[in-house]
């Protein structure tokens, strides 16, 4: 019955074999840019005509339109729950008193375009039960066209088990039959590998489930989308979901990483925050035209992974002018040196290269090494090219810190700063300083200056860093600054923000990890929970930890991708836990557990599912400064991946 309902209504019969959308239709030749309200409003009352018009105004007033943002898109909840007597969709008269066409006319008057939403099912995804388009494709598509809609997001809820390709192809044909150019966004969450079949169906396709405004969610989606680079190109884009920049769940550093990595993946850039109330910093991130240019490069390549060892990612994107965009992305919770070379990212061998930092908006020369010490969860985004003008720029200099920035109050921690000339030319009159919080002792124990650093040479400075007795545990800022002059006498200053963590030695004996303070915790859905399951997205909403019907009183409840770090201080021997998928998600979920001792994987499980009982995992962590508990997805995405570290214990 549902399959039969996919036919075009008799009054608007489908034309014979319309041509499938391709890059030749002129749509989405670069990844769509714009706004979608869902991440900031969901179905709340503030999603209305006033908001949509306000976003359009801000696009123009704040220069976002000129930067490339074009689409103002409505998500779910714009309609009434029932169609009219003619089977037509009815806009909610409270939210949109003037109707959708009036909103479209307003958006068009600003030189922008309007997008709308429905689902390839009997209802949309919201629990209120708004009408979907399954069986109404041609009628709904014509309504959208008559209203002046320019973009359709087509979701996957309540699909009645009808074949995905059939459902999405039918709406493709319906949109084509209207004669109006409408960008077609397939939102079936990657369940049926649309990258394999949708290039002749839609212009972009979601590759994952929904994003959430936290680091773990963003990281998980990034990792799922990166391997799909070969499938992207003009008019056919992998869509890792909308941007969360500005919604408040991540730090500014994490949001810059989010924006940088979406850009290098040639992902659609759909702002998901309410621009009427975001910070200036959010506008600076979203409006960075050098980063946007990476996303919008007309060659249409998605960046490919060059390396990813230890959470230190190098992703490179070929650009139409022959240059390479290069992201040095640090997924870990501490600063990391990430390095590659011009030839490794695909450039031909040359004497030197121009290296442009797209967040600093500065250009340097490099002899070929591309390297930076990247803050925790940070990204350095570069554009590198071989050209004859490299000598006009000062040499690139990398500033880094060796040693663990873990500090026990009252005890000196020994750190080593490095200032390294990566350029083809010499860095002269080099100096370095390290500063910490007021009251801390930060003292150099070796020289802090050098008259000259030729290519590849470093100034290494030893530092003794001491937090005062009684300093509370927690994170504190350090700043490493370097200054130097180019051969032409140009002064260059750089600063590397770092984090020192004041730690408390672990107690002797065996302790439950659910009760010990952690150094850091990232989680794919809501926060990691102590002594309960992960629950849902709010803090403290977990349930008793339960694996295979067995209830455990202590442990950690997490959701992939997750990493929880503890300070061991070289004084501990073993970590043990009963691990598995929590029963709270029914039959869903598949995860793998890992225990890391500093940079070494000390123990791991295979993929575990909800059908399996708890499994004992034991790791030897003797001598480790930091112990990290990691949960990854089972290779099938992160839906319902609720992992438990039941009875997790650290013996010291």
Gross morphology: globular
Q: Strand order of the main beta sheet, please?
A: 7-6-5-4-3-2-1-8
Q: From the alpha carbons, calculate the radius of gyration and give it in angstroms.
A: 27 Å
End-to-end separation in angstroms reads 65 Å
How many alpha or pi helices? Answer: 10
> What multimeric state do the chains show?
single chain
- How many strand elements? 39
Based on secondary structure, the structural category is alpha+beta
List the uncertain runs: 1-21
Question: Quick one: biggest sheet?
Answer: 8 strands, parallel
Q: Name the beta content range.
A: 25-35%
Task: Round the mean pLDDT to the nearest integer and report it.
Answer: 94
The share of residues in helices is 10-25%
Polypeptide structure, described:
With 652 residues, the chain is α+β, with helices and mostly antiparallel strands. 15% of the residues lie in helices and 34% in strands. The protein is built from ten helices and 39 strands. The strands form eight sheets. Strands 7-6-5-4-3-2-1-8 form an eight-stranded parallel sheet. β10 and β11 (324-330) form a beta hairpin. The longest helix has 15 residues, at 164-178. It starts with 32 loop residues before the first strand and ends with a strand. Mean pLDDT is 94; it is low at 1-21.
């Amino acid at each position: 019955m549902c399959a039969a309902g996919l036919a075009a209504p008799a009054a608007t019969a489908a034309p014979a074999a319309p041509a499938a959308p391709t890059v030749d239709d002129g749509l989405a030749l670069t990844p769509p840019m714009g706004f979608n309200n869902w991440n900031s409003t969901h179905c709340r009352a503030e999603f209305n005509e006033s908001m949509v018009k306000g976003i359009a105004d801000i696009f123009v007033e704040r220069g976002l339109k000129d930067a490339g943002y074009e689409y103002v898109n409505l998500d779910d909840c714009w309609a009434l729950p029932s169609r009219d007597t003619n089977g037509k969709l009815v806009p909610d008269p409270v939210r949109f008193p003037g109707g959708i066409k009036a909103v479209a006319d307003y958006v068009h008057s600003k030189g922008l375009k309007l997008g709308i939403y429905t689902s390839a099912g009997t209802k949309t995804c919201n629990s209120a039960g708004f009408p979907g388009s399954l069986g109404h494709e041609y009628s709904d598509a014509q309504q959208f066209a008559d209203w002046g809609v320019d973009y359709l997001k087509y979701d996957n809820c309540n699909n009645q088990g009808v074949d995905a390709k059939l459902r999405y192809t039918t709406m493709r044909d319906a949109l084509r039959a209207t004669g109006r150019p409408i960008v077609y966004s397939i939102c079936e969450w990657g369940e049926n590998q649309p990258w394999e079949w949708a290039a002749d169906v839609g212009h972009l396709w979601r590759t994952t489930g929904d994003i959430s405004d936290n680091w773990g969610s963003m990281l998980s989606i990034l990792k799922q989308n990166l391997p799909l680079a070969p499938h992207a190109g003009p008019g056919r884009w992998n869509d890792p979901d909308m941007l969360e920049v500005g919604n408040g769940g991540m730090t500014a550093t994490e949001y810059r990483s989010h924006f940088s990595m979406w850009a290098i993946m040639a992902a659609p850039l759909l702002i998901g925050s309410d621009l009427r109330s975001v910070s200036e910093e959010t506008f600076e991130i979203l409006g960075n035209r050098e980063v946007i240019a990476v996303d919008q490069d007309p060659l249409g390549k998605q960046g490919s992974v060059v390396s990813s060892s230890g959470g230190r990612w190098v992703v490179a994107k070929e650009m139409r002018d022959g240059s390479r965009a290069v992201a040095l992305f640090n997924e870990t919770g501490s600063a990391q040196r990430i390095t590659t070379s011009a030839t490794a990212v695909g450039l031909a061998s040359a004497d030197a290269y121009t290296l442009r930092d797209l967040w600093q908006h500065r250009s340097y020369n490099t002899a070929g090494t591309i390297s930076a010490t990247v803050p925790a969860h940070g990204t350095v985004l570069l554009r590198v090219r071989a050209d004859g003008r490299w000598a006009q720029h000062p040499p690139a200099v990398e500033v880094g810190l060796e040693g663990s920035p873990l500090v026990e109050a009252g005890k000196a921690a020994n750190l080593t700063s490095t200032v390294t000339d990566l350029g083809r030319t010499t860095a002269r009159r080099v100096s370095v300083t390290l500063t910490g919080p007021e009251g801390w002792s930060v003292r150099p124990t070796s020289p802090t200056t050098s008259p000259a650093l030729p290519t590849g040479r470093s100034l290494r400075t030893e530092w003794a860093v001491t937090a005062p007795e009684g300093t509370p545990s927690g994170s504190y800022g350090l700043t490493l600054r370097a200054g130097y002059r180019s051969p032409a006498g140009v002064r260059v200053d750089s600063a590397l923000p770092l984090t020192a963590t004041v730690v408390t030695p672990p107690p002797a004996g065996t302790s439950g990890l659910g009760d010990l303070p952690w150094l850091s915790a990232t989680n794919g859905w809501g926060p990691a929970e102590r002594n309960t399951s992960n629950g849902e997205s709010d803090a403290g909403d977990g349930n008793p930890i339960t694996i295979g019907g067995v209830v455990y009183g202590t442990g950690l409840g997490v959701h992939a991708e997750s990493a929880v770090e503890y300070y061991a201080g070289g004084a501990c021997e073993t970590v043990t836990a009963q691990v598995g998928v929590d029963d709270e998600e029914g039959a869903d979920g598949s995860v793998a557990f890992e225990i890391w001792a500093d940079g070494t994987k000390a123990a791991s499980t295979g993929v575990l599912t909800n059908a399996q009982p708890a499994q004992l995992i034991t790791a030897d962590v003797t001598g480790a400064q930091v112990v990290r508990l990691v949960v990854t997805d089972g290779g099938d995405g992160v839906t319902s991946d609720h992992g438990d570290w039941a009875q997790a214990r650290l013996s010291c």
